[in-house]
Amino acid sequence: MRINFIALLSIVSWISAQETPQATNAVEPDQSGENAEQCTPYSAPIVQDNLGQFPPLWETAKIVQGDTTAQNKYDEIKQVIPSSIKPKGTHDGNISDVSYDASDPDCWFTSSKCTHPKVDGLSDDLATLPEPNTWGLGFDDGPNCSHNEFYNFLSDNDLTATMFYIGSNVMNWPHEAQRGREDGHELCVHTWSHHYMTSFDDEGAFAELYYSIQAIKLVTGVTPTCWRPPFGDIDDRIRIIAEGLGLRTVLWELDTNDWKMINGKTKDDVRKNYQDVFDAAERGIFEDHGTIVLTHEITAETMEMFIEMYPNIRDNFDYVVPLSVATNRTNLYVEEETERGEVFADYVNDHYGSTVNQATSINTNIHPNPTLTGWQGPLATIANPTVAEVEAATEPTTASSSSSSSAGSSSVSNDSGNDDEEDVEDDKTEHKSDDNIPSQKSNPFVYNYPQNTHSNNGASSGGHTSITKPVFTMVALFVVTMSCIR
Ligand SMILES: [Zn+2]
């Protein structure tokens, strides 16, 4: 089965915009089958009727003209954004012109993997887990139109995960986002257009998060309280904006680099990355904590790789749980009427039929509850999005109840699909020529493909990494470090 060109073009285009094309293990494309069908763009009224309330899909976000709710929220948050922290680099991740102090004053993860903010009142990022021998299960870049087989696998194995959805993807594939919600996965934000967040000015960073929140709310009915920065590109300025919107920041400890299969890494390369995690487990590295391992639903290939690796994950870890469970967070969404999540001990009991075998399942609510307690410090007064605010912000302009029911009723209509990884190269090739972009221009779901303006410097992936600490500026080591983290 095939992934339609369209299915991956948007995501591949932004990857391509940040990566130097490399030799690829090209495979013959297969353009038939169920994936092509399930990845055919469609118009869901709930999205179509509300497009005017959102920035253009896949374009870097700004506050929509006339959106006073967003503007007021931004004005509120803006008051506590430190002017000393400036935007860094380009949206595509070129930081070659950035001069940055080696002491890492902004807690810039891209520079130092810093996860302990230096601005008072900010919560630590979540990168490891308190529960030993636990794999924190999460996937970035969805919802992917071809994810049904993968989500079937998760359900069949009684797995729920933390899904970091791209706002534009949610608008493109609302039924797939609804499936994520209906399957019980924890929905978090992964920005509107998937660019390097520290490159945005304050308003742009706000809008990237704000409209992703609204997209998830519009399509799934819930307001997320967590997010992960694309490429891990975050500093304290971005953290303040995120927390001002009620989002806790999630990063990762280890990285499979699975998405790099788009750019020429082989399956064996990625298998080795997984194996490195398993080897660490065998050495007892996770006896005192659990880990968050970065994985993606970006392509069928990355999803299939997880399925292949899952038996080994089970062999090497006691528990595989969503991130909220691993941190005993039960307030998954702003809406108080939504179901609560489970604390770790209860989840283990329900899903593994056993009691927790180590006494660490105390309430380790690392991140303050934005709906109940607010944050300490300067954010305390602004970090509490209320249901009323959310409802006001997502009030449909023309959406009718029939629109909602239409979208809802067909929320899992695509799940007969099948995946195939072979189309990645094909899509990538396709992407090189705009002539091949399908004629969706009149479709409201047309992708606004980012132009392929990448520099050769741009690029880390998940940001991961091991950028070694620069001596005085980021300039000198940039090229070297980028090559290390590809
Ligand atoms: Zn991503």
UniProtKB/TrEMBL annotation:
<comment type="similarity">
    <text>Belongs to the polysaccharide deacetylase family.</text>
</comment>
<dbReference type="GO" id="GO:0006032">
    <property type="term" value="P:chitin catabolic process"/>
</dbReference>
<dbReference type="InterPro" id="IPR050248">
    <property type="entry name" value="Polysacc_deacetylase_ArnD"/>
</dbReference>
<dbReference type="InterPro" id="IPR011330">
    <property type="entry name" value="Glyco_hydro/deAcase_b/a-brl"/>
</dbReference>
<feature type="domain" description="NodB homology">
    <location>
        <begin position="133"/>
        <end position="322"/>
    </location>
</feature>
<dbReference type="GO" id="GO:0005886">
    <property type="term" value="C:plasma membrane"/>
</dbReference>
<dbReference type="GO" id="GO:0046872">
    <property type="term" value="F:metal ion binding"/>
</dbReference>
<feature type="compositionally biased region" description="Low complexity">
    <location>
        <begin position="390"/>
        <end position="416"/>
    </location>
</feature>
<keyword id="KW-1003">Cell membrane</keyword>
<keyword id="KW-0170">Cobalt</keyword>
<keyword id="KW-0336">GPI-anchor</keyword>
<keyword id="KW-0378">Hydrolase</keyword>
<feature type="region of interest" description="Disordered">
    <location>
        <begin position="390"/>
        <end position="464"/>
    </location>
</feature>
<keyword id="KW-0732">Signal</keyword>
<dbReference type="InterPro" id="IPR002509">
    <property type="entry name" value="NODB_dom"/>
</dbReference>
<keyword id="KW-0964">Secreted</keyword>
<dbReference type="Pfam" id="PF01522">
    <property type="entry name" value="Polysacc_deac_1"/>
</dbReference>
<protein>
    <recommendedName>
        <fullName>chitin deacetylase</fullName>
        <ecNumber>3.5.1.41</ecNumber>
    </recommendedName>
</protein>
<keyword id="KW-0325">Glycoprotein</keyword>
<keyword id="KW-0479">Metal-binding</keyword>
<keyword id="KW-0624">Polysaccharide degradation</keyword>
<keyword id="KW-0472">Membrane</keyword>
<dbReference type="GO" id="GO:0000272">
    <property type="term" value="P:polysaccharide catabolic process"/>
</dbReference>
<keyword id="KW-0146">Chitin degradation</keyword>
<keyword id="KW-0961">Cell wall biogenesis/degradation</keyword>
<keyword id="KW-0119">Carbohydrate metabolism</keyword>
<dbReference type="GO" id="GO:0009272">
    <property type="term" value="P:fungal-type cell wall biogenesis"/>
</dbReference>
<feature type="signal peptide">
    <location>
        <begin position="1"/>
        <end position="17"/>
    </location>
</feature>
<feature type="compositionally biased region" description="Polar residues">
    <location>
        <begin position="436"/>
        <end position="464"/>
    </location>
</feature>
<feature type="compositionally biased region" description="Acidic residues">
    <location>
        <begin position="417"/>
        <end position="427"/>
    </location>
</feature>
<dbReference type="GO" id="GO:0071555">
    <property type="term" value="P:cell wall organization"/>
</dbReference>
<keyword id="KW-0449">Lipoprotein</keyword>
<dbReference type="GO" id="GO:0004099">
    <property type="term" value="F:chitin deacetylase activity"/>
</dbReference>
<dbReference type="GO" id="GO:0098552">
    <property type="term" value="C:side of membrane"/>
</dbReference>
<keyword id="KW-0134">Cell wall</keyword>
